[in-house]
Prior knowledge:
The protein is mainly beta. The protein contains 5 helices and 32 strands. The protein has helices spanning 6-24, 203-209, 220-224, 464-470, 521-525, and strands at residues 54-55, 67-69, 77-90, 99-104, 113-116, 121-127, 155-158, 179-184, 191-197, 212-218, 233-243, 249-250, 269-272, 275-276, 278-282, 286-293, 300-303, 310-315, 318-325, 329-331, 336-342, 350-355, 359-365, 391-403, 410-414, 432-439, 445-449, 455-461, 492-495, 499-506, 512-518, 529-534. Strands 11, 12, 13, 14, 16, 18, 19 and 21 form an 8-stranded mixed β-sheet that branches. Strand 13 and strand 14 (275-276) form a beta hairpin. The chain is globular. Bound molecules: CU-O-CU linkage and copper (II) ion (CU). Residues 156, 158, 196, 198, 334, 448, 450, 515, 517, 519 line the site of CU-O-CU linkage (C2O).
Amino acid sequence: xxxxxxxxxxxxxxxxxxxxxxxxxxxxxxxxxxxxxxxxxxxxxxxxxxxxxxxxxxxxxxxxxxxxxxxxxxxxxxxxxxxxxxxxxxxxxxxxxxxxxxxxxxxxxxxxxxxxxxxxxxxxxxxxxxxxxxxxxxxxxxxxxxxxxxxxxxxxxxxxxxxxxxxxxxxxxxxxxxxxxxxxxxxxxxxxxxxxxxxxxxxxxxxxxxxxxxxxxxxxxxxxxxxxxxxxxxxxxxxxxxxxxxxxxxxxxxxxxxxxxxxxxxxxxxxxxxxxxxxxxxxxxxxxxxxxxxxxxxxxxxxxxxxxxxxxxxxxxxxxxxxxxxxxxxxxxxxxxxxxxxxxxxxxxxxxxxxxxxxxxxxxxxxxxxxxxxxxxxxxxxxxxxxxxxxxxxxxxxxxxxxxxxxxxxxxxxxxxxxxxxxxxxxxxxxxxxxxxxxxxxxxxxxxxxxxxxxxxxxxxxxxxxxxxxxxxxxxxxxxxxxxxxxxxxxxxxxxxxxxxxxxxxxxxxxxxxxxxxxxxxxxxxxxxxxxxxxx
Length: 536
Ligand code: C2O
Ligand code: CU
């Protein structure tokens, strides 16, 4: 699954260059967060830390507190959960002092919802955060103007088919001391979803602080596949951070104190399930790993040493039609990969999981053989391709970059339209549309639509410069189909630089107002997000 995109490559090179720079910097002093020479803050070099001294933490499963009636649905009672958002201090590594974090339910990543398809649930999300933010707010960013409460939060279940009033609209934030109870019908296929903060203008800071967690949906059909389960099914949540030398979070700022927003944040320190360089003891048998890229801006390109067999069995919205043997797994922010790795041929060895930029963790395979009753079935679940002819509308939507002023930062937009402008995308409930996402920029943007799942039709390079200057569209390559491991249902699509990515979207679910946006959190917070309306 090699991705042959210039931009993707370039980005990897840039990321690797950062990693290389970090590696040659004096121990414990490396530095990448700088827009010019005036802002230099020493940050922790991960190479100064011992590797593989902490076991991989596993998320705590959320427990319901009885049943409650669903508002507006008389007679329907569902499990009720209460999850506080709180400041905590967490150990990211054996040799670092505790780090101040914000958490859902006491850990980062937060408590994990382990749920069944078609079994709805209610969650009361309680904001018990402190009154002041500890990361640098940019008051010039939309929705974060001075006078707006510094600490505010609203939860979105990413990938959830959720009614609009429970979807966590970015402007539906609330302050410490308040809570909201959201209803998740869970009427959707089994998949690994995740929940995270979505407060307008500070989402990047709230998620960086730790406001994210997993939500797994299962069903009978999936259970019958006999995939590795129980302790052989392990979630891996990947993200990166900059840390100060004392282990506290450091969020980079620009050289302009009036506009601290940074267009891209790639942390130097990799974490897996909230730990730096953890290890996991495994048996020589098959495991299922449910991987989420929860980073603000980093694309991960994951690999294991040659000879270790990896099959991808699922993507953002659940199982693929059949397992796909992969050598690398590319995950943009918010994308998920469901992987089966067989450790049976590797008894008594240690295996590193790596990204192009850094090593992430170590698997320690025990020596004694064990029985493995789990299966890797030849087929998983039918995913019929949606016919293009079923689309009632095709929208051409650009991903734009603009200079805001001579010294000011670059800004990004969707369809040249800022967040606060009237809604322009109004699909009709029950219809299918094709969205042509034309990326005019030199960056990859992971584009996510709330509520719906979609399929990627194809990608095609075009002359973005000519398009911008003359308005004429000239393709410079034939259309390429999605990668074999993208052939399932998606909710986030990698839109490569100077490429038109076409997605086909059945708008099913609920009428109402939702959002679509770039899931690079720095972009999302600074205008690369738009509302859309599903009309009846
Ligand atoms: Cu991961 Cu708008 O969301
Ligand atoms: Cu973006």
